[in-house]
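User: For my dataset I need records formatted as: sequence, then structure tokens, nothing else. Please produce one.
Assistant:
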Amino acid sequence: MKIKYYLDNYSLKTGYWTMKSFLEIKTRLAIQMLLLAIISASATAGPSGQDRLSDADQFKEENPNKLVDVKDFDISGIKLQMTFKEVFSIFKNLQKKEGGSIIDDSDGSFDIVPIGSEPVPHRHLSYLSNQYRIGIHISEPYQYNGKQFDKRIYEIKYTIQNYKIGSGGKEIVIKKYGPPTLDHSKTDITNTEYIEYCQNIKIDRLFSYSLICNSDKGAYLDFSDGVLILRDAVFEKFTKEHSIPPPPLDIKF
């Protein structure tokens, strides 16, 4: 039938297809190629998003012990929701033992905090040694049920300086915190170390449809190529929603 259609649109007088018939043939061929591509992709595609959602539910049922209360974890003695003063005290003790520096990099700056002083950073503070760096993210003061609360920690980031994959960092993390909820190192085609400890999990809808920690429903800890992060985005959101409004300006123009 296709051959008959092409012959019917062929001009015996000129020996060529007419422009109209040529465009029609070209359009039909393009549509056919597109349909073939869609059919081929459907035949070779992996599990659908709905299938992966059921995988997440099945994982929770079969591995209840792998979902952990990450909020009980600590990094170098620092825990989530600690006050800024508590963490600053830990930084000062590390400084006395190791001789490192405390850095106030709240606004993208890199200001070394003089020994003995107690700064009040806006968002971020770090302790820097020759071997590692610990950075903390700090909430604003907030209020709840009629009470006011000071700045508290919602993220701790520990970075090993000049880390090399395979040097044992992943094993040290597992020794401290136990078996991870998810180990992406086993399935990752690249040479990486990536493990996660989750309070809850979800499907990664943006990329691979693989299982990942659900930061919207709980804290998480992950280790990836020498960087250890302990974060509670739920608490961060809570402090923003209950932040203390600034006092009204008392000025006259």
